[in-house]
Model the fold of this input.
Amino acid sequence: MSQANGHDDRTLPPSSAEEASGAFEPLETTRIPPPPHQPGAPDAHTLELVEAALARLDLEARVRLLTGSGFWRTAAEPAIELREMVLCDGPAGVRGERFDEREPSASLPCPTALAASWDESLVERLGALLAIEARRKQVDVVLGPTVNLQRSPYAGRHFECYSEEPLLSGRVGAALVRGIQAGGVAATVKHYTANDSETERYSVDVRMSERALHEVHLAPFEEIVRAGGVWALMAAYNSVDGVTMTESPLLETPLRTEWGFDGLVVSDWFATRSTEGAGRAELDLAMPGPGPDQPWGAALVAAVRAGLVPAEAIERKVRRLLLLAARVGALGALVPPAPPRPAPDAAALLREAAAAGMVLLHDTGTALPLTPDTLRRVAVLGPNAEVARIQGGGSATVIPPYAISPLAGLRAALGPDVEVTHAVGARIRHRLPAVTGADVHDPKTGEPGLRVRFIGPDGELLHEELRGGGRLLWLDDPIVARAVAIEAVGVLRARIDGPHRIGVAGVGRFRLLADGVPLVDDDLVTEDPLGGILTPPERWAVLDLAADREVELHLRHDFAAERPGTGFVLGVDRPVAHEDAELDHAVALAAQAEVAVVVVGSTEESDSEGRDRSHLSLPGRQDELIRRVAAVNSNTVVVVNSGSPVLLPWRADVAAILVSWFPGQEFGAALADVLLGHREPGGRLPMTWPAHEDDPAVLSTTPVAGRLDYAEGIHIGYRGWLRAGVTPAYPFGHGLGWTTWEHLWVETVASGADFVARVRIRNTGPRPGRHLVQAYLSRADGMVERPVLWLAGHTWASAPAGAEVTVELTIPARAFGHWSAESGRRETEPGGYTLRIGGSSAELPLTAKLEVGPGLRP
Ligand code: BGC
Done:
């Protein structure tokens, strides 16, 4: 361990015969100075408490703390007044340990939408909301932000990441971390590192150049450690250069030795793969725990005793765990900072944020903004109009208190004088929606919901309760631990005539009866250890029901005894018209309306953790729906409700295209704000949108023989597109507002090692507005390989209609640097650079020359 993190001057007892005999004495420790870079480094008092607590623990007690005590909890140690800490997902809302309708969580716009706002102060305010949510749910550590890069639109967790651009990802992530941690709750930056896609996610070995690793993939983590001062980091499932990330040398250098990270490294769930390798590595906490799946515990104590893992490694791990506990108020009497008071109005903030992320890709100016005064009829069409996707799938999913659909939001905003018609148009295959209290009631009492019974090994009833809906999950549950089966019973009432899809999703044995007739009788299995929680297999049958017909559903789920958790979804999908008839109906409604708003999007089969996308097209017949609607209504506005780019082959044929992403629970309200012009569509693309599946800069996420080769090197995202000379559908940074802008001039001045660019712009349109001024660098004649362009700074400008304004952007010295494989550090090549300013990576009308002298420290 190098001098940089101050560990090498400690006096530690050598491993001794005493240790080997088992009479292990508490270790002596010396205090470590705060690390070099991290903001919010602990004060002397905190460090003293941590050291005192550490010194009182023997080896067994220390090692016990390094594996979770449950799915979401760390172990307590009353002897040092250490309580359990609760770690919970995630980046778009705080789940809490009880992840169901009884304790809902505020649902934020997905991370991609946050990055699309390019607004760090807004993201910091959302971080504060996450801290309030975490405190409310007794969560100490939030498992987010996710800052892996959007290397490919095929990536399943694309929606959960910020951007293809490392600088933007790092800045937005650091803002979220500052917001969360100011409320005394730890953030966890994840997944360190190169966990950019899901195919073979537990084992894929990512290969890339050292320069790409340091300059591109580690860069957001570095920013979040150095500028965000993050308290925890999650080591990913994948390998880099043949070493699994929970054992990677990257956990030491650069993370701790160069960046000064003093926080806790937690494994991704079930990612700790060895006793000794992970024990020696700078991984601190193996999650979840306890149990046979975790390789630490007694085996790690034995490895230390046998001299296979140094006692100092254990000491460092425990010290970092205790420091985290001190920071969140889990150790002794230390009190962490409180979240802001008064608490923000969550609904208002989420509505503002959802609108701030929406990107207007295309606008002919004919249909938008909508003006209720002049409209009589608006058709709101599409499969995502009434049942929208507010969030992506997997561990970022939360159960929101409510979700405002586009249809509901537009109906409310357009008011009673505008008739709003609706048709699904193109049916897309969603997973079975969980039944709600509106669909089912308790057969005994008639109360809305399902009666859930827990059955013991002798068939005895251990407990029963009424639940609000059919999405049921228990983790670390003492009753489930004693049970061998769970039954869910409810009376379903059909609302309309037709074939209903009724079934179950889960892992294990399921038998579902409808009025005694078996619909499902099957063992459902998955190979993914987390598959039961992420996207469990489904089984269903179709039952023809007349409107108002009641049928009693009885589901029994059997599982192995002494299992602390299980879960399933009991779902019912309501009948819809025949596909062709449904399409014709939507087109007819569009023809009768002045404006057609078509809300299209993805299904849970894409934009989900656990699997990558297989294609980039909108699923089902959505393209056909849009084409046919556009053919009968020239005011067709398409809202794209997806978490990652989709192909828009009809894009020249419609009046406007707005990308909503997954905007969280306030979707419909925010959408109406934007479409009616009450707010600007605030987003600018944080990634490039391809025009075709086979565009050369669209990268594959399929490993070959277990390896995924990042052959693009430093040319990720728009850099790759520019290098290939291919025009995408929409470039990085693109997005329109309700007004237009002209870039007038730029001047630059040196400011210490940085430069400041002063940019003059004019609002040339009819309305006040906001404009994102973007600054890129390029260098044509250097000796070092460079991207064609790279982002160096951005700022938002506002101006009334017709007005001019001057804004300043800092171009930091670091922006000129590159990572040198020869020297193993960042360097700056002196000479001339071109600064290019404009409104997107493809529209940069202003340029300035910047001369960088020798000796600049990047
Ligand atoms: C995901 C993490 C998540 C963890 C706990 C893992 O499968 O990769 O992002 O924090 O589960 O839910």
User: Anything to note?
Assistant: The longest helix spans residues 311-328. Residues 89-90, 143, 190, 268-269, 395, 530 surround beta-D-glucopyranose (CB under 6 Å). The chain is about 20% helix and 25% strand. Residues 65-328 form a domain with the TIM Barrel fold (CATH 3.20.20.300).
